[in-house]
Amino acid sequence: MQARRQVDLLRREVNKIFAAVDLLITPTMPSPPVAIAQGADATAVSIRNTSPFDVLGLPAITVPCGFMMSGLPIGLQIVGAAFAESTVLGLAHAYEEATEWHRRIPPV
């Protein structure tokens, strides 16, 4: 029950933020990517910046936004208020129309 109360409190705080802004833009991952060949657990690393929005039930999408010097891709996360899926998808589409990152393929 405590966890449920915490989620409800967080949702109220996030709703206050979205009263002032339409979207939040964040990095998809909290740190630069590490190649799986180097022993990285991709699931554990990538989940950190996305999971808070999953728990809160907010619409979010990640789009490619560049590459590290190592050639590994990096992502840009777009998050919207509850039920603002069309706003999130609209910005993601506009970003991909304005950039070429989604067309580049990282070296394998």
What do you see in this structure?
With 108 residues, the protein is α+β, with helices and mostly antiparallel strands. The chain has one domain. It contains four helices and three strands. A three-stranded antiparallel sheet has the order 1-3-2. A hairpin with a 5-residue loop joins strand 2 and strand 3. It is flat and about 45 Å long.
Q: What would a concise description of this structure say?
A:
By secondary structure, the chain is of the alpha+beta class.
* Biggest beta sheet attributes: 3 strands, antiparallel
Measured distance between first and last alpha carbons: 46 Å
Shape: flat
Q: What's the mean pLDDT score?
A: 87
Please bin the fraction of helical residues: 40-55%
Output the structural class: alpha+beta
Domain count, please report it: 1
- Beta-strand content estimate: 15-25%
Total number of helices:
4
How big is the Rg? 16 Å
String of helices and strands: HEHHEEH
In total, the number of strands is 3
Oligomer: single chain
Q: Give me the side-by-side strand order of the main sheet.
A: 1-3-2
Model regions low in confidence, pLDDT < 50 over at least 5 residues: none
Could you outline the blueprint of secondary structure elements for this entry?
Elements (H helix, E strand, L loop, with lengths): L1 H19 L2 E5 L14 H5 L4 H6 L3 E8 L5 E8 L4 H14 L10
What descriptors fit this protein?
single chain, 108 residues, alpha+beta, 3 strands, 41% helix, flat
